[in-house]
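Quick one: structure tokens for this chain, please?
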Amino acid sequence: MSHDKNISHLGINQSNNTAVFLWQCIFGLFIFVSSPLYAQENISYELEEHIVYYNVFNSSLIPADVAKQYNLVRAKDRAYLNVAVVKKSGGYGVAPRKLNGAYRNLLQQSFPLTFIEIKEATATYYLASIRFNNEEILHIDITVQADYQSTDETFTITKKLYKDL
């Protein structure tokens, strides 16, 4: 049974859950930006001419068919870091010249982040898998070079992650 998802106001017609999930990720980033409930939590980092938006979410939020399509692992001890880089002058997500990072636990054990690129018609963003223990506090270091004219910028976010029951 096929359910057509019409996202015509965004200029896209899709007939699968993949597009809906990907748009939910992007939409979630922008909801957090404008929501007063999340005013204390910073979910963006400003560069000279770009803004880096990011969020961390449990892998169980990814529908099984989407996880299979992009080879994403769904597990109780997995989360994903979602990163999108946009120009301050407007427009959709851009592909940064450089994006890498690592996450550290409280014992300062460091684990590299491996980003995969997700390209949509009007957006480009990156996902990296994070493995964690329940109620673990992680420091996530992200390095971005938005374009050839900019320098590397590194920033750190701290998150406490919880396993799904």
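The first strand starts at residue 5 and ends at 7.
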